Amino acid sequence: MSYENILVEQRGAVTLITLNRPQALNALNSLVLEDLIDAFAKFEADASQGCAVLTGAGEKAFAAGADIKEMFEKPAAEFFAQDFFSRWTSHLVKTTRKPWIAAVNGFALGGGCELAMMADIIIASENAKFGQPEIKLGVGPGMGGSQRLTRAIGKSKAMEMCLTGRMMGAEEAERSGLVSRVVPLANLVDEAVKLAAEIAAMPPLAVIANKEAVNAAYEMTLEQGLIMERRIFQVLTATEDKVEGMGAFIEKRPGVWKGK
Ligand code: CAA
C-alpha cells in the first residue's frame, strides 16, 4: 500500500518506514499519524517481518515536532476531547509488540524526539539534534518528553532541556544514554537496517518477550520486574524454539526458529 506522508519498504525481514514530509522537516500532523498507525499495524501482523526501522526523509530532520500549523488554531476543548497525542503511544508503543528502531537523521524535536523515544532503540547520525523546545511555544511536551527523556538521561539534563529548549547533539545524546550509537549520516539507514535484521533473525517469541521484560523496568518496582523476568524466562522454556536453541548450542550449529 502506498501512503501520502510516509514511505514503506521491506528489506528482507525488516520494514523500513520513512517519514516523508521533508518540506516541513517531517513535522507530525494527524495524516502522518494515520499513515504510521496503518504501517505499524501491517508490520505487526506480517509474520515475515521481525523488526522495523523508522527514519525521516532528507538530511535535515527525523521530525521537527508535532505540526505547529495544525495545532495553532485548534481549540483547547478539541485537544482534550480527542485526548490529543494519546493515539501515538497507544499504537506505536502499546500495540506494537515487535521491536522497532528509530534512525534519527537530524532534528528530533518536540514530538520528533518523543517519537524517537517511543522506539526500542535509537541510533543517531552525527548531525542529529534532540530537543524539547515546546516551552518556546508556550506549552510543554505532550507525547512523553517530560517522562521518557527524564528516565533516559536523568532529571538535571531533562529539566534543562524542557525549561530552555536547548538541543542536545548526537555525541552528548550517546554519552547521556539516550541513543545506543552514533554513525555517519550516510551509513545511518544501512546500520539501522543491519541491526534490525540481526534482531529479526532471533527467535521471534523470545524477541517479543525480551522487549516486554526490558520495558517492564520502566513501569515496575525492581522486585515486580524481577518476578516478571523470571516468569517470562519460565514461559519461554515451554517453546519449541527453546528446545531448538539449546539443542543447536549443544550440537554446535545455528538454530532454526519456528516462532513456536
Ligand atoms: N510544525 C510545522 N511546520 C514545521 C515544523 C513544525 N514542528 N518545524 C518546521 N516546520 C516547517 C517550517 O514552518 C518551514 O516551512 P515553510 O518553508 O513553509 O515556512 C519548514 O518546515 C522549514 O523549517 P525552517 O525554515 O524553520 O527551517 P530552519 O532550518 O530555519 O529551522 C528548526 C529548523 C530549528 C527545526 C525549526 O524549523 C524549528 O524550530 N521548528 C519547530 C521545532 C519545534 O518547536 N518543535 C516542537 C513542536 S510542538 C510539539 O512537538 C508538541 C509535542 O510535545 C508533541
From TrEMBL:
Q: Which GO terms describe its molecular function?
A: enoyl-CoA hydratase activity
Q: What is one GO biological process annotated to this record? A: fatty acid beta-oxidation
Q: Give the family from UniProt.
A: Belongs to the enoyl-CoA hydratase/isomerase family.
Q: Is Cell membrane given among the entry's keywords?
A: no
> Per its UniProt record, what InterPro entries does this chain match?
ClpP/crotonase-like_dom_sf, Enoyl-CoA_hyd/isom_CS, Enoyl-CoA_hydra/iso, Enoyl-CoA_hydra_C
Where would one find the signal peptide in this protein? none
Catalyzes what? a (3S)-3-hydroxyacyl-CoA = a (2E)-enoyl-CoA + H2O; a 4-saturated-(3S)-3-hydroxyacyl-CoA = a (3E)-enoyl-CoA + H2O
Q: What keywords are assigned to this protein? A: Fatty acid metabolism, Lipid metabolism, Lyase
Q: What is this protein called?
A: enoyl-CoA hydratase
Which source organism?
Answer: Novosphingobium kunmingense
Q: What does this protein do?
A: Could possibly oxidize fatty acids using specific components.
- Its EC number is 4.2.1.17
